[in-house]
Amino acid sequence: MTTTASLIFNPNAGQNDPVEDLVTIREVFESKINLNIHPSHKGVSTAELTHQAIKQGTDMILIAGGDGTVSSAAEALIGTDIPIGIIPRGTVNAFAKALNISTNIKAACEAILLGRPHRVDAATCNGKPMIVLAGIGLEPETIAHSSRRIKKQFGMLSFVLAGIKELGELKTFEASIETENETMNLQAVAVTIANTAAPTSLLAHGPAHVIPDDGLLDVTIFAPSNRKNAFFGAYHLLRSGFTNDATHRDDIQYFKAKNVKVETKPLQKVSLDGDPIEANSVEINCIPHSLNVLLPALDNFTFN
Ligand SMILES: Nc1ncnc2c1ncn2[C@@H]1O[C@H](COP(=O)(O)OP(=O)(O)OP(=O)(O)O)[C@@H](O)[C@H]1O
């Protein structure tokens, strides 16, 4: 019996030409499996579209988009056994990069055909799906200063430039952080709660490695006391993301927990999987091994 896959395709994600990308995707899949294409459009949420595809019956869900698209589709997929293929055609694609999925469209599609299902963690943030991370302070400020039009035009560079500007402004806030183990009160410039993180997810990289299937969230607190330390700290975080060496600085703390609640004074901007959200506080709960993602087939594979 031939496998049937439902492709959730967001034409508005990323900077690539959607028509060209769709041709590439069809070329790889259509001779091998039955492909039902569900282009996303403004009238219906990606979550709803994914629910509809599952209801119609499918052997796997393919998601072609960026983190926002995967995060929204996850609402329908968390806790199911349906194999999920990620085709990264967003701007940042942090979830795909964290799972070692190629950002080349053709290579990602070919890897799905040969892929092995592997259960990775997801989470909820104030009840909404979270696949990558929630940022408080510096990250959402950076996103707010990088409009969608600029993001579309300059891609990742728009975040780098906005991030450098925000670092220089050094806006400190009070944070009260509660986990299943402890409650702490501290000053910070950024609090980041990560389920997964790409090497470029700078503010999540206090720890050496954010493990996507450990059933835990990684919390990184960045609290530089002046601009010089802010830039040095950012460099150390970036290095940690690329080298797998944890940071060792007094102004960077990190720990793991399954459930994390954060309140801030004054109220801070919050981002969820790369998009701004309205929130007075955040409550994040890890849902271990709740997404069944098709990953590149490698011998003796482990995220550790
Ligand atoms: N249901 C939908 N139909 C069509 N477009 C949508 C829908 N929901 C969101 N969008 C649009 O999709 C775009 C964002 O997609 P996504 O977040 O996947 O990509 P990205 O922002 O380019 O990449 P990344 O999140 O990896 O940085 C936005 O322009 C948003 O308005």
TrEMBL record:
Gene3D superfamilies: 2.60.200.40, Probable inorganic polyphosphate/atp-NAD kinase, domain 1
Gene Ontology molecular function: ATP binding; kinase activity; methylglyoxal synthase activity
One of the GO biological process terms: methylglyoxal biosynthetic process
Pfam families the record matches: DAGK_cat, YegS_C
The protein's name in its UniProt record: Lipid kinase
Matches recorded under PANTHER family: METHYLGLYOXAL SYNTHASE
UniProt keyword Metal-binding, yes or no: no
One GO location term (cellular component): cytosol
Keywords on record: Kinase, Transferase
InterPro entries in UniProt: ATP-NAD_kinase_N, Diacylglycerol/lipid_kinase, Diacylglycerol_kinase_cat_dom, Methylgl_synth, NAD/diacylglycerol_kinase_sf, YegS/DAGK_C
Domain (DAGKc) ranges: 1-129
Species for this entry: Dulcicalothrix desertica PCC 7102
Top-level division of the source organism's lineage: Bacteria
